[in-house]
UniProtKB/TrEMBL annotation:
A GO MF label: DNA binding
Record-linked InterPro entries: HTH-type_LysR_regulators, LysR_HTH_N, LysR_subst-bd, WH-like_DNA-bd_sf, WH_DNA-bd_sf
Top-rank taxon, per record: Bacteria
Protein keywords: DNA-binding, Transcription, Transcription regulation
Residues forming coiled coils: none
Domain HTH lysR-type: 1-58
Protein family: Belongs to the LysR transcriptional regulatory family.
Pfam families with a match to the protein in the record: HTH_1, LysR_substrate
Protein name stated in the entry: DNA-binding transcriptional LysR family regulator
Amino acid sequence: MDVRQLSYFLEVAEQASFSKAGHNLHLSQPTLSKMVKSLEEELDVLLFDRSTRRIHLTDAGEVVQAHAQIIMKALENLRFALTDVKEMKKGKFTLGLPPVIGASFFPKIIAGFHKQYPQITIQLVEEGGKLIEQSLLEGSIDLGVTVLPVDEELFEVVPLVQRELMLVLNAKHPLAESSQISLLDLQKESFILFRKGFALHDRVREACVRNGFEPNVTYESTQWDMISEMVAADLGISLLPETICKKLDASQISAIRMNEPKVHWNLAIIWRKHQYLSHASRGWIRFVRDSFEPEYPKSQLNPDL
């Protein structure tokens, strides 16, 4: 038994005539009769009483009609639901977002996406970049935003923005008035970093090691505002994204652009290779990509999204 058989049967039942039903369905009467007969044989019941000039449903036919109408309505609802998903009217996905990245760029983007697609739900998971990568590989989240680089053998990557980290220190720090500061000038300083598991922790440490020293990390935090408060209290120095530095109290904290070598902070949306992406997820990627397009023209990005 298939959907086509049921739809043909329902049309015959509604018209009470094989010839009229065949005309509506653009089928010959013998073909339609054969399809209904096949359904009767499969169900092992007689669906129509053909003993009179005008056919009518048997008791079994009435039962089949009632259930067939339910089935056809359910299929219609399924098609409508799938259309809603394809047209981005409904959907959901889980997004891994490090707190510092979320605070820097995404409140307005999420608001814009919600305005355009109000029935799509974004479940946010706030974790460091390394934990986001792990969660993607485990399949517990659908998409993540993190700091590059990542292993491109494991992840698909859509680059978003290119930024630098800036030195932040207490406004009364001896280096606060300097205009020329390199990483080597900081080798005796106490560092306040994001905790291990955050990509920014690794970016800063790796940059220091490349310049010949292991940073003296005295405090770690998961929140940029906590780090800035500790810098304001003269507990150490840090390197933070320039978008965050714009929010700091300049009377307490100095933010200084580093000389070469700069510590880069390049962001991307990532997901596990060969992973199925829902229509909602693909729509989000396109929306975010277009929001940052001035930095990364579409010609450089994944054309399949």
